[in-house]
Every structure is written in C-alpha cells, then in structure tokens.
Design goal:
Layout lengths: L1 H18 L6 H15 L6 H15 L1 H6 L8 H10 L8 H9 L6 H23 L5 H14 L2 H5 L6 H15 L1 H21 L2 H17 L9 H22 L8 H11 L2 H9 L18 H6 L4 H4 L2 H19 L1 H16 L12 H11 L4 H6 L10 H27 L7 H20 L4 H5 L4 H15 L1
C-alpha cells in the first residue's frame, strides 16, 4: 500500500511537469539552472558574492597572460629573478619584489607570481565595489571587470612579472583604509593593509608616491571628507620597514636606495641640465664626467642602458652613485629655476603619457641566458610564448586605451564637479583621491626618472573603474 501511494505521487508529479510543458528529465536541470542563477545574481556586498567575484576575477585578470601561454615578461624581470633567486644584491632593483619572487616560488613557476598578483588585485577590486556600490549584482561587477580587461592596462600589469601592478594597489589600499576602515572591519582591513605595505615596498617610486598620498590625506583633513590617517601612516611606515629590511637582508646595511641619484642624474641629462653644468664648471669642478662630456648620450635611457655609455665605463650604478649625487646637488643649487621648469614639464608630459605595452616585446636576446641559468625548466614555455614569438601588437590596443584614458580623466573631473554642485561631498572622496594619485605619480616618476608610458599606464585603469562605480551608485540612488 505504501509503495503504491509513493508510485501514484511520483506519477502525479510527472503529469504536472508534463502539463507545464517541461520534460521529466528537464526538471532537475531547470532546478540546477535556477540555483546557479540565484548564486550568480547575488549582491556583491554579500560574502558569497564577494567570494565568487574574487575567484572569477583572477582568471579574468590573467587573460592576456593565458593567451600568451606564459606570464608577461619585462626587461627588468631577469634582474629581479637574479637578485631573488641568487641572493646577490642589485642596486637598481627593489629587494622586496625580488624576495616576493623567491617566496612565491618563481623558480618553480612564474605562474604562481602572476596568480598572487591577480589575487591581490581581485581582492581590492571586490572591496572597492562592495563598499562603494554594495547593491551591485555579481554579473554587473563581472561585466565591469571584463570591460577593464578589454579597455585598460589592468590585465597587462597583473599578469606581468614586474612590480608595476602594485602602484594601483597602493592607491586603492590607502583609499580604503583612509575612508572606509569601518566597513572593512578587522579581517578585510588586515588584508588590505598587508597588500598596501607590500605595494609600498616593491618599488622605490611607490615609497615616494605613498608619501605624496599621505600629504594628500593630511590636506583633505581640512575639508569635509575628514579621512583617517592612522592606518595609512602605519601601512606606509611598514612598507618603509620592509624596504630597509629587504636591503639589509642582501647587504647587511640599512639604507633606502642606492640607485636614486643615477636615475635623477639621467633625467637631468635628458633635460640638458647636466650638459650645462659640465660646460659651466669643467675642468675646475673635477667631475669624472668632464672627460666624457662629448660622449654622453642625449637621453636618459641611452645613458643608463646602452653598453657604450660612459655610465658602464665608470662602474654602472655602484661606481657612479656618489658623483651622480654630487652633480645632482650642484645642478639644483646652480639652476633652481631651470630645474623647476624642467620638473613641471616632465610631470606634465608624464601625466598624459600612458600608452599600454611599453617594453612588452620579444626580449630573449637579453633575458634568455639569465632564464636558462635560473629557471631552466620554464625555458620551453618561455620561448614558445607569443611575446617571444613577436606576436604582441599594441598599435590598435594602445590607441583605443589612450582614448579611453582621456575620456575617463574627463569623466573623473566631471564627476567631481557634479558631486560638488549636488552637495554630495562624501561621494567626492574616491574620484578626488584617484585624481590626486595620478597627479602625484606623474610628478614622482616624471621628475625622478623621466617620462615613460608604462609609469602612468599602470594607474590608468583606475579612472574608468571609479567612474563606473560612481555612476552605478548614483543610478541606484
């Protein structure tokens, strides 16, 4: 009797499913589809939505590297690997990033490093979306991520074995800790602070940029925004300690950088200031470069990186650091107005130079010997990658992303004007801070090293991200 009743019940269920136009086998499938749709349609503020977004963002951010069949390589990658895996200090490379490569098992696979960088980026993307637009649905956020992957430099930085991706992570970390520490709470706040400290430490320019951002926060304390200073100061101080610790690990000496003076010297050389100093003071000044005055290259890159440059003849970064510092001080003292004009011009040029793809070319003529020695098991994949086959072409991508960059900058300014006129002071924090970071990065990189596209390109995915989140928040409001 009981078995018969169960049979009749199941038959009734089948008849109802047929009456509704649904096959018997389709009912479980439909339930699975509905369940998946429910999971995907969750709000990003929900822990489930946040977790799914982070997990799905990681492969999304690595799409160019996946298409390349190997993480993207830059000329500096070899030096970072050499320093990290051999333990021999290289003055022009940040010790902390080299140690990050070692601890992330770069010797076993560079993919581990790329995944770690993408995971950090994905986490901060999700935190910004969760806090700025908590009611944003997961599919919408994934579309935003896809748009950033297609239209900005974000995935090219995340999948590159280079510390460039951390510049934007520094900006987002400091912003979240200064304006949204309460919403982050302890667990997320600790993760954001850790990423921020690492981001400060992995490149000397990031340390200077962090100092600039602290000045911005102090200035904003006098506005209606009232950012918090405690956690950002702790993050920047921790980053500085990591820099000192990393340098001490390799050299058993405490210092911040031994390559800053040659980089600034090279920028002044490119601006014509060094040649004027030599013309005005040689031979009385006793500079070693007086004897090489006619052989100096006209550009900073030509001076620093071409083998026939006097820079190599005089001992590279180690051999020229002391005299470079002396000549930089003398040039600043002798020509202050010329220095100011050159600095303003370089910063302005840097602000509008952000073409994606600088240096992302076939580089095995430089790096293959180093890689063959340090990571021999990865050499077949490295040589087979599209980058090493010369298949990267940024002509179309670069033009499109430059246009998007300028449009997003205009959108950033328009948002600020709109929010101020509408009396929405709280909404101005994100665009204000990102715009200040872009200006600060242009000043830091343009003045200390000279304008290069990749310096500003690494931050140029932030303006469209801010614009999209702000517009979505306004639409929901």
């Amino acid at each position: 009797m009981r078995a018969g009743a169960e049979c009749r019940c199941e038959t009734a269920q089948v008849n109802r499913a047929k009456a509704a136009g649904m096959s018997v086998t389709g009912a479980p499938v439909q339930r699975r589809i509905n369940g998946l749709a429910h999971w995907l349609n969750t709000e990003i503020a929900a822990p489930r939505g946040e977790a799914i977004a982070i997990v799905l963002f990681v492969p999304l951010l690595l799409l160019p590297a996946i298409w390349n069949r190997f993480p993207i390589i830059y000329y500096d990658t070899g030096a970072y690997l050499f320093e990290g895996l051999t333990g021999r200090y290289i003055p022009e490379r940040a010790a902390v990033y080299s140690l990050l490569l070692r601890f992330a098992r770069a010797g076993a696979s560079l993919w581990i490093v790329a995944i770690v960088q993408a995971a950090m980026s994905a986490f901060l993307l999700a935190q910004c979306a969760r806090i700025v637009t908590p009611r944003m649905r997961l599919p919408v956020l994934l579309l935003v991520g896809a748009a950033l992957v297609v239209a900005t430099s974000l995935p090219w930085c995340s999948g590159e074995i280079e510390p460039d991706c951390f510049a934007a992570l520094l900006v987002l970390s400091v912003y979240l800790l200064a304006f949204h520490a309460r919403e982050l709470a302890w667990g997320r706040g600790a993760a954001v602070a850790s990423i921020g400290a690492i981001s400060v430490a992995v490149h000397p320019s990031h340390l200077v940029l962090a100092g600039f951002l602290l000045v911005v926060l102090v200035t904003l304390r006098f506005s209606r925004l009232k950012p918090r200073l405690g956690l950002p100061v702790i993050v920047c101080a921790t980053g500085l300690l990591l820099v000192l610790g990393g340098n001490f690990y390799f050299t058993r000496q405490i210092f911040i950088s031994r390559a800053g003076a040659p980089f600034v010297f090279a920028r002044m050389l490119q601006d014509g200031i060094i040649m004027r100093l030599l013309d005005d003071t040689c031979p009385k000044s006793g500079y070693t470069l007086c004897a090489y005055k006619t052989e100096l290259p006209p550009t900073a890159d030509g001076y620093l990186w071409t083998p026939h440059s006097p820079f190599f003849a005089l001992g590279h970064f180690r051999g020229t650091a002391a005299e470079s510092a002396r000549m930089v001080r003398d040039a600043v003292r002798r020509y202050p107005l010329l220095q100011l004009r050159a600095a303003v011009a370089d910063a302005a040029v840097q602000f509008v130079r952000f073409n994606t793809g600088e240096g992302m070319e076939s580089q095995q003529w430089v790096l293959a010997p180093v890689f063959a020695h340090l990571i021999p098991r990865q050499m077949p994949a490295y040589l087979a990658a599209r980058q090493q086959q010369g298949e990267f072409d940024f002509r179309v991508i670069g033009k499109a992303q430059i246009a998007i960059g300028f449009l997003s900058l205009a959108g950033l300014v328009a948002l600020l004007i709109w929010f101020v006129r509408a009396g929405r002071a709280g909404d101005t924090a994100f665009p204000t801070f990102v715009l200040a970071a872009l200006i600060g990065n242009a000043i830091v990189c343009g003045v200390l090293s000279g304008p290069h596209d990749r310096y500003q390109s690494r931050l140029m995915w932030l303006p469209p991200f801010v614009v999209i989140l702000s517009l979505h928040k306004s639409r929901r409001r």
